[in-house]
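User: Hey, quick favor. My workstation is busy. Could you predict this chain's structure for me?
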Amino acid sequence: MTGNSSIPKLDNATLSLFKNTNTSIAISVIYMFVTAINLVGNGLSMWILIFRTSPKTASIIFMINLTFTDLALGIALPFQIAYQLQGYNWRLGPKMCSSLTLIFYTNMYCSILTMMAIGIDRYLGIVRPMLFRQIRKKKSMAVIGCLLMWGLVLCVLYPLMTTDLTFEFPELGITTCFDMLKKDMLPSTAAWAAFLFSMVFILFLFPFCVTTFCYVSVIRKLAKDFKTAQKDRAIRLAVIVLLVFTLCFAPNNILLLTHSVLRLFYKKSVYMAYKLSLCFSCLNSCIDPFIYYFASKDFRQKLRQIMNLHSLSSGDSMKMEHKESMYSAHCTFEGQERQHSKVYLMPGTSQRRESETT
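Assistant: No problem, here it is.
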């Protein structure tokens, strides 16, 4: 993954990745699937959270923050798809490469921290409702929390913003984007270790432990309650969040740590496995709308209203058509009955007989 700034040196794992077209196509297909689900699901979620959900509680603000990062990833992924399909040849320049790489990793780690914040908010609301009641009511605390998340992530990922992440490899005739980093990106091996370990431990492992504690505490608290519906939703939410951590985030960060240690100290690599885990980490943006559904009662109600709107409209129109057809048949029957009664009336008695008929 790293090489000298002037003489490119690829390990066998990275070289085989660049030459393996099947892997490139498989990763591109996954990214296409994620992009489609991401833009539809999170676009609808953003519209509901901003325009249809009120009041804007702390949880809603955290969800808006999470949706924003997911949509940014959905917009950036098509560029990554084009890069993969062109044989790992980046043609959009160093600045675009740095921007899209930053979006990619910011989405992952802001998602992790935001899920932790939602878990803490639910913990305070269910396990410690009286002690932190006033804090949870302040929207400014949620906004400050989101700003602190972004600040922390950007501080850790600062080297990605200030470095040319493209790398020309003449032997294959390609220019890579973040697949091969220069050793002089950071001044020393210790700086590399601090950068990579902070990503794994500060931005993943610590939030994972906090989130697990919060949701386990919530489930234990609700297990003593008779409100089974609330308990079931809380359990489903906990399962979904932990599923996102274990299936989307954990493999990528564990492989990042493994690859970094092997590359920095043993000159070995597991880069192909890391690359595959990186594309699976994007699946979190498809699962996040389910988190909103179970975490927010207001979001559930608004989504159900939207989903039932078409069927209700169709049902109402069918009822109106049925009423109109019944009314038309009734009028036709009355007209025929009146016309039939007039046929048998004698001259001079039409007025009296007609009044009797009607």
